[in-house]
Task: inverse folding
């Protein structure tokens, strides 16, 4: 493990401890998508400490892709929905979900006085 990874991991653990101390639920401050990314070695900040655009794109993109695939497999494919219409629906759903989640994370961070990742203590 290189020094940069170790530094990120230590900083992440400090951030997660801070978020836990603020009374937030673990599934809120460390949602499954973020925990998966951390396990894969992707260095992303906790959602409350990330920027609005980052949260919107990450969460909205993930939701749009997987919700669209699920809808295609369960419903739209059997209804012979044109692929372009399905893609637009998935894109809109992802955009709305991403905006909603980004707004919620920013609102919750302000409410609980959580610093941005760039302002959080560094070792």
Result:
């Amino acid at each position: 493990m290189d020094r940069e990874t170790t530094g990120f991991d230590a900083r992440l653990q400090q951030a997660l401890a801070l978020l836990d101390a603020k009374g937030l639920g673990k599934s809120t401050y460390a949602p499954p998508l973020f925990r998966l990314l951390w396990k894969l070695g992707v260095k992303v900040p906790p959602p409350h400490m990330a920027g609005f655009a980052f949260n919107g794109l990450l969460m909205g993109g993930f939701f749009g892709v997987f919700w669209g695939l699920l809808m295609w497999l369960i419903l739209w494919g059997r209804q012979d929905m044109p692929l372009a219409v399905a893609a637009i629906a998935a894109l809109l759903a992802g955009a709305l979900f991403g905006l909603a989640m980004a707004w919620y994370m920013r609102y919750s961070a302000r409410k609980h006085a959580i610093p941005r990742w760039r302002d959080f203590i560094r070792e």
Summary: The chain has a mean pLDDT of 94. Residues 1 and 57 are 29 Å apart (CA to CA). Residues 83-111 form the longest helix (29 residues).
